[in-house]
Design goal:
Two copies of one chain form a homodimer. Chain A is of the alpha/beta class. Chain A has two domains: 170 residues, 3-Layer(aba) Sandwich (Rossmann fold); 190 residues, 2-Layer Sandwich (Dihydrodipicolinate Reductase, domain 2), CATH 3.30.360.10. Chain A is 37% helix and 18% strand. Chain A has 15 helices and eleven strands. In chain A, the strands form two sheets. A six-stranded mixed β-sheet of chain A has the order 3-2-1-4-5-6. In chain A, helix 1 packs across helix 15 and helix 9 crosses helix 10. The longest helix of chain A is centred in the last third of the chain and has 18 residues. At the A-B interface, helix 1, helix 8, strand 11 and helix 15 of A face helix 1, helix 8, strand 11 and helix 15 of B. Strand 11 of chain A pairs antiparallel with strand 11 of chain B, so a sheet runs across the interface. Chains A, B: Pathway: Amino-acid biosynthesis; L-threonine biosynthesis; L-threonine from L-aspartate: step 3/5; Amino-acid biosynthesis; L-methionine biosynthesis via de novo pathway; L-homoserine from L-aspartate: step 3/3.
Chain lengths: 370, 370
Amino acid sequence: MSKIYVAIIGAGGVGKAFISQLASYSSRNPSLNITPILISRSKTALISPDYSGLSLSNWASDLASATTPPPAFPTETLKFLSTAPGPVILVDNTSDEAIASSYPQFLSAGIHIVTPNKKGFSSSIDLWNGIYSAAKNGDNANGKGGFVFHEASVGAGLPVLSTLKELVETGDKIRKIEGVFSGTMSFLFNSFAPLSGDNGGKGFAECVVQAKELGYTEPDPRDDLNGLDVARKLTILARLSGLAVPSPTSFPIQSLIPSELETAKSAEEFLEGLPRFDGEMTKKKTDAEASGSVIRYVGSLNVERKEVKVGLESFAKSSSIAGLQGSDNIISFYTERYGANPLIVQGAGAGAEVTAMGVLGDLIKVVQRL
Amino acid sequence: MSKIYVAIIGAGGVGKAFISQLASYSSRNPSLNITPILISRSKTALISPDYSGLSLSNWASDLASATTPPPAFPTETLKFLSTAPGPVILVDNTSDEAIASSYPQFLSAGIHIVTPNKKGFSSSIDLWNGIYSAAKNGDNANGKGGFVFHEASVGAGLPVLSTLKELVETGDKIRKIEGVFSGTMSFLFNSFAPLSGDNGGKGFAECVVQAKELGYTEPDPRDDLNGLDVARKLTILARLSGLAVPSPTSFPIQSLIPSELETAKSAEEFLEGLPRFDGEMTKKKTDAEASGSVIRYVGSLNVERKEVKVGLESFAKSSSIAGLQGSDNIISFYTERYGANPLIVQGAGAGAEVTAMGVLGDLIKVVQRL
């Protein structure tokens, strides 16, 4: 088999885990001739200008000492990749919207894309349409479009998008999708409002600080608490279910940032002010407990009613959503064929290793279709 | 695109649902040129000898009035299929071991196979090896082998095998797989030993009769109660996890057929005798309740210890397995990457529509790889 060229943008947590998994996959499958030709981060890059391939054995130290800037994006990168003497898979391990907005150009040039980056699929519907009209597994099936897969954009390595796609492709009717889509929100409410009811007297603000210290939140926890991450995931699920949601903010999203703190100038200032609002959140928790329930931060989409929403809801303590542990995600698909009891996928929905696994799984899907 | 030929063996519950879903898929995707050339049941068949294709609009009544016998299996069928002027997908919707034992021949001839039939993958390890050494997605990747997919052989349409394969292919280490793998056993124990503890005083035998009347068991409930169906599913999961289990009876299987009733000459005689053993099962249930648990019929495989087993176990009432509803299946994958909290897939694991969906999903996988 001829070589399969791989270009990797982003070498942070997920990128590192991905490259390590790719190196191992490549050595287990030598006949595939996986050939890395680009590993780039914002300022520097490793490039194999003659397409002979980069070694993955010392890539991290090689990149640390590299001085070559990455090829300009998109023009030079596109030129370099589309001149490769064989199929190219572009792995975008960033969360960069500018990179995502160039996917249509890369796909049109026959370059395949696998990515955990939500931006391309959850921003404007125009970008979504641009991507899927250029992709071979979209409207460009008979042209020279590249394949695009983004399993890890929802639920990391959990089989969420592949399951949804198969339900739709085989003709099932999606009625509702509901779940906990954020590891941060899962951890936060599992600690603030545990099934036992007793969290040791911690207020909501204290739980946020703890989650941040344990690495469960973004560096600025407001990026989790504003609900936009969950809204982006719902946007992707809605679009794959046939609802042409125009943007990730075109439906109700309950932000957990108190309006009085929206103008806080830093994460520190925000966290300092947050305890003043503990009373409100404690009331919500206590109200739920009075009816045998717990509060959880969920996203849901009702395809029949064309409704998408993200926010806090109460769930009976016996429900699957209430029983979730740690930072796990849970996604329930209610469909015509599955009837009253949904098809459920559950497990870690964040973390470098499981996210990288979702990306590598997508790369394998491309390889199997070459 | 040239035509994709499809041959369907078996037109019972799953077969009927599959053909209906295929007809609908085909009309949604006319460019694929899905061309059915054979629909057969034991005595009669619809055949398109010139490969021009059968109409799926009246297939059921056409088959009901058909007098043509099916082509002899395997020789004539193989000849007919391998002479087709394009790719052929053989859909085996039977549970016939004789058909399954011919898969290697069909795969070697480049014919693709999709099936919910467990027999090919859960009988002798020699047959398994024969299948996977002939298959293109096995050791015959560079030859002209056909693809083989059998998602619906475990958990019907639930993404069980695809998830396991992706975990393995991306280099995760499977530690343990545990779950409820039988809709019958799920229903039976959810009614006999519900979470509430109160089943209205029904003994185990009465629950079996009720499950049979509601259509949850095989015509002869002993075919469920002997545990072999679950053992076959565990055999498949074990082999995909890298344990070369020699046969579906090469590990401990707890049969729920009392030894005194093993010689019963009919299902009726068996069901008549069963109430005499209600006391034993009630004791197991009561013992579990005393420690806040319920009994469930589960299968598990521990890859590190190379242990596979099937039988009754107690589960804490707060566990996912105990909380299962109706006839749902639940499958928990414990892996290195997922750590303490497993990746869980849950939902209906039996029924014609969801089984057919698993088969059609596999057919789509083949189509995407052509």
